[in-house]
Amino acid sequence: MRRLPPLNALRIFEVAARTGSYAEAGAELGLTHGAVSRQIAALESWLGQRLFMKDGRRMVATPMAKIFAAEVGLSFDRLAVAAQACGRPDARRILRVSAPTSFAMRWLIPRLNRYHADHPHVEVAVTTVSTVLEDLRGGVDVAIRRGVAREHVWPQHRVVPVLDDVDTLIMSPALFARRPILKPADIEGHTLLASETRAGDWANWLEAAGLEHLAGHPRRTFDHFFVTRQAVEDGLGIGIGPLPMLEIDVAGGRLMTPLPDIRVPRTGYVALIPRRADAGKLAGNLVGGFVDWLVGEARDAR
User: Fold this and answer.
1) Taking every annotated instance into account, which residue ranges of this chain make up the domain HTH lysR-type (predicted)?
2) What are the counts of helices (DSSP H) followed by strands (DSSP E) for the chain?
3) How is 242-279 classified by DSSP, letter by letter?
4) N or C terminus of the chain with fewer C-beta within 10 Å?
5) How far is Cα 211 from Cα 111, in angstroms, rounded to an integer?
6) Distance CA 261, CA 238 (A)
7) Mean pLDDT for the stretch of residues 122-151
């Protein structure tokens, strides 16, 4: 008989080491912090050595534990692939995707019906993050973030460019009908709406429009862009918004771009694939195929 450590404790340990937090491991596994702690303690007792050390208020994996966790993760990946190969071929696969809220709402989710039509046995579960630069967490197959395709920025992930991003002036058609903007100087007197999560949007656009003297103009600021976008749609003022993300709103008549030729390039979006996803052939094909679909959708949009 194989002398194996407790498998449930191994599973919890791998998640805790990968996420770097007992609390996040508990959230991913549906367990309390105390339950995670007890399972880690049981595994430490079986191994005869500490796996985590206290660092301030957090428990941090030891260097040896990180190496062990990587091996355990690969073993679980191989086990998952074997189980998939042995399971029913028509069983639904769940693909977990993390994306910034505005990207998910305005670009990704409206396109998912096309993906599901071609992949009826895959269920895409989307979770959102409030900022595009939010730290990566465990528990997802693909993470979409704003950034450049440089491997050293995310060393544990394969990085694939997905969508370019440019900023332009946006407003509601109803506000345009009342107070049209036909040239850059026409924005004077309008309420400028801004977002804390997209700092610098107005300053960059005003510079591109030759209106640097309005940089100190008062603005009404919201915490997240999806709130600002809604305020623009409701006609509360004018804003700076990203294309092609908002093309769905322009096509639907909810927003318009009164000065479309004045555009400011921004850092685009990339798909981040955990390198452990490539360990299993079936899982890797599923994730890689989804990312290829994302790239194709962005190419078609252009």
Assistant:
1) 5-62
2) 11, 10
3) EETTTHHHHHTTS-B-SSTT--EEEEEEEEEEEGGGGG
4) N
5) 37
6) 16
7) 76
Greater pLDDT, 151 or 257:
257
Phi, psi of 185 (to 5 degrees): -65, -20
Under a CB-based contact definition with an 8 Å cutoff, are residues 184 and 262 in contact?
yes
Residues with Cβ within 8 Å of residue 134, at least 6 apart in sequence: 100, 145
Alpha carbon dihedral 143, 231, 176, 193, in 10-degree steps, equals: -80
**Percent of the residues in the chain that have a pLDDT greater than 70, as a whole number:** 90
Encode pLDDT of 222-270 as tens digits. 988 989 999 999 999 999 999 988 999 999 999 999 999 999 999 899 9
pLDDT of 14-31, one tens digit each?
A: 999 988 888 888 887 888
Q: Residue 82 corresponds to which tokens in the numbers above?
A: 């074997």
- Cα 285 to Cα 63: distance, rounded to the nearest angstrom: 31
